[in-house]
Description:
Helix content is about 75%, strand content about 0%. It has 14 helices and no strands.
Amino acid sequence: MSTTDFDGPVSPLTGLAIAILAVSTSAILVRWSAAPSLVKAFYRVLFTGFLLAPIAIVRHRDALAVISRRDLVAASGAGVALAAHFASWFESLNHTTVAASVTLVQAQPLFVAVGAWAFLDERVGRRTTVGIAVALGGMVLMSVSDLFTPSGAPRPLLGNGLAVVGAVAAAAYVLTGRSVRSRVALVPYVVVVYSVCAVVILALTLVNGDPLTGYPAREWLLFLGMAVGPGLFGHTVINWSLAHLESSVVSVSLLGEPVGSTILALFLLGEIPTLPTILGGTVVLFGIYITSS
């Protein structure tokens, strides 16, 4: 793994803290935008790719040229999985609360553990098993509670289900790219991933008949904000931090995203989470912590 992609005066822990704050804004920006979900996802990925392209061309042109066919196929598979993640998660925010959606989509470490056991022959220990069981219990509590305690969301069960699909897709993205990042530097890798992701989402957008143009200036600023904040300073910096910090530290730190997003939704969207959502979300986060630590 290359440790020189973004070396500088910022410490890895400081960079990780900034990244968690940046990704916490994602759900808020998505909610503020009135564009179709696929359009939001497309422009977020496209603009993030554009922002990284100059760095890739200037500093990593040779690395891009020598990516093996095997790694290119794997990175492309990660791009398809990332497209599925964005498409399902962005749509989930149209149907359920920010607190529920972000907490459930952040459960991807659980599915990474299951996928690593099923496809990579990695052993699942007792602690991981307990953590998965606890988190799944929290997911059930969050979803079932919506049947009895209205959260104000239009279709919370659908939204929660889409968020879980987003978590599974994110796990596939992580598992697919895990080995590639040990051989390919960060910027060349994410440029390939984002490019494939953008093409897949563009195809889905065209099939769905969503317009790609004609949006007011406010929407274009939100699209750019999604790319600069959650995209560039969020997930890209998190990928960089994995070269400097233990994966367990990064995984556990990501639990700050649901908390940050819920707090931002409270103040910026006036969205007050119900008690069952808070309880269920806490159980989910505890389960993820057990699994990741």
